Amino acid sequence: MGYHQDGKLYPVNDFMKSMQQNPGLRDTILTNNGFSISTLYDIYGEGNLNKALHYKIHTLATSYIENKGNGKFELTPLDIPAQISNVNAILIQDIDLDSFKDLVLAGNLYAMEPETTRDDAGIGLWLRGDGNGYFTPVPLSESGLYIPGDVRYLEFVKTRNESLLFSAKNNDYVQSIRLIQPVD
Hints:
The chain has five helices and eleven strands; from the N terminus they run ββααααββββββαβββ. It is an alpha+beta fold. It starts with a strand and ends in a 5-residue tail after the last strand.
């Protein structure tokens, strides 16, 4: 994996991780400092990289995709609060009964490599929809939504008397949140 900076392609992985994955590199790159100033082409060679399988990621932003019809789709990144941590679960539901779909997001990612800190800044997020494809983040102080942990799945359940939001977490408990205003 690599990233572009100032027109050059650099490795994402550090020296030790790259050496573990490709022990043969020890013959080419002798020091951590040498690795730190090397491009992917310096490390692996232009011929090897040209023959390698290539995938490109154009954005890592948490986004929604709108079907515009006739095979046309539009990708729209969500606001900054939705970018704080990994999002693993998104529910589409009219939370405030204004006839517009809202989004509830939750996630985080605890299973990381030892040299990478876990993504654990997310506490869940309600994004209020306006019916025109824009979603406004509702602050915790207004929403009361608090879903910490390594969330993998969200589901709404409506009973006769109340509406509940369940969140399933990796290696943890299932959390239930009673919604004060029932959702349809």
